[in-house]
Amino acid sequence: MYSLLLALIYLAFISLGLPDSLLGAGWPVMHLDLGVEVSYMGIVTMVISGGTIVSSLLSDRLTRKFGARWVTVVSVFLTAAALFGFSFSDRFWMLILFSIPYGLGAGAIDAALNNYIALHYSARHMSWLHCFWGVGTIVSPFIMSYALTSSTWNDGYRIVGYIQLGIGTLLLATLSVWKINKTPEAQSQKSLGLIGAVKIKGVPLILLGFFAYCAAEATSMQWASTYFVEVRQISEAQAAQLASLFYIGITAGRFVSGFLSGKLGDRRMIVIGACILTCGIVLLFIPADVEVAIAGFIVIGLGCAPIYPSIIHSTPANFGAENSGAIIGIQMASAYVGSTFIPPLFGLIANRLGFNILPVYLLIFVALMIAMTELTFAVTKKARRSVAPQE
Asked: What is the pLDDT of residues 332-342, one digit of tens each?
């Protein structure tokens, strides 16, 4: 039963990753069909992220009231409905409308399952949880590439919608498996709220650091396909496939991180990831053949791999297990703020200066992330020492 529950949680995270790479892979064609500028992708992502911010902030309350299993199942069905809505959209405003339920569903499942794993499982399972998110993100660009080649981008969303519906049905049929956990999270956590959480030492720092990391990750994720089209001059269908390179790197990296995180610890994994991420960005500066850029996005994905799960998994240790539910929810909201505003800002800037400024843009946020996460670990370590019993 323990293994089955873990498999179901992994499957739920595949469902979370499936829609995340569709928009970036299909947008070079979608914006033309819808008659909008390329930068309008930022509007769609802002609406999606707005929904995730709201549901992330409410996730602690929802999970304590209904339990992680019901929040997960309902969220999967909500995102499936949104994907079918995308598949029937032939006007830009329709994408905006269906982005709302998609964002609400994604934020709730993300925060609920991240906290569940952080409380009940080791660091390796947190890495592998996000590895399975990467599995979903790898599959989707190939689905979109197939749809663009054989029909339209709408069919790409429709195919993923059916997959999502199947996953939701399986999760609904296996709800009883979640009872293996004898300690309900609703009774083991304290609800802090936003104001209470930010008063804890180190929380504002990690919120800013997580914001910066997710800003860099989301920008790489959403603009990779357009970067290959605009800067490297390749076809839209090929660019949709190459967009999966980032996801391949991040997925492979998280699989490997699962074996290393227990030995190295969350802080070291974040530093190692940041160094690899920086190396990948440097490769994008090289004005060589497209193969160098391909390698760059793979290395960027590898570098991103351990950072997100390590930041989340370190939350109970840094701030206390009793506070983790509320803080992780707020961290998710902070992450989605970065995902909401920073990628579309890049689109606006790139429209004026060119998409070749992508590596400079990414480096700014990676530097901010490194500074804030290191400060967080230093501050929380000092705080734990100050409250430790004196001999």
From this structure: 888 888 877 89
- Closest Cα to residue 271, out of 339, 369, 204, 383? 369
Within 13 A of 68's CA, how many CA atoms are on the CB side? Answer: 28
| pLDDT grade for 169, boundaries at 50, 70 and 90 | very high
| Two structure tokens written together for 343 | 């990628």
The tokens describing 209, both together, are 């650091």
Task: Give the angle 196-200-205 at the CA atoms, nearest 5°.
Answer: 115
pLDDT of residue 187: 46
pTM listed for this prediction: 0.76
Helices 290-304 + 266-284 axis angle, to 10: 170
Choose among 222, 257, 290: nearest CA to 38. Answer: 222
Interatomic CA distance for residues 82 and 76, integer angstroms? 10
> Which H or E element spans position 291?
helix 290-304
Beta carbons within 10 angstroms of residue 182's beta carbon: 5
Summarize pLDDT for 196-255 with one digit per residue, the tens: 777 888 889 999 999 999 999 989 887 888 888 888 878 777 777 776 778 788 888 888
C-alpha span between 243 and 141 (Å, rounded): 7
Mean of pLDDT over the chain = 84
Tokens of 220: 């790489």
Find out whether 286 and 249 touch, Cβ atoms under 8 Å: no
- Do residues 191 and 326 make contact, with C-beta atoms less than 8 angstroms apart? yes
Label residue 389 left, alpha or beta by phi (over 0 means left) and psi (-120 to 50 means alpha): beta
Q: Which residues contact 201 (CB under 8 A, 6 or more apart)?
A: 379, 380, 383
* Residue 269 token pair: 């994994």
The CATH H-level (homologous superfamily) assignment of domain 2-174+189-384 is: MFS general substrate transporter like domains (1.20.1250.20)
Buried b (16+ CB within 10 A) or exposed e, 5-30: bbebbbbbbbbbbbbbbbbbbbbbbb
Question: 46 φ, ψ to 5°?
Answer: -65, -40
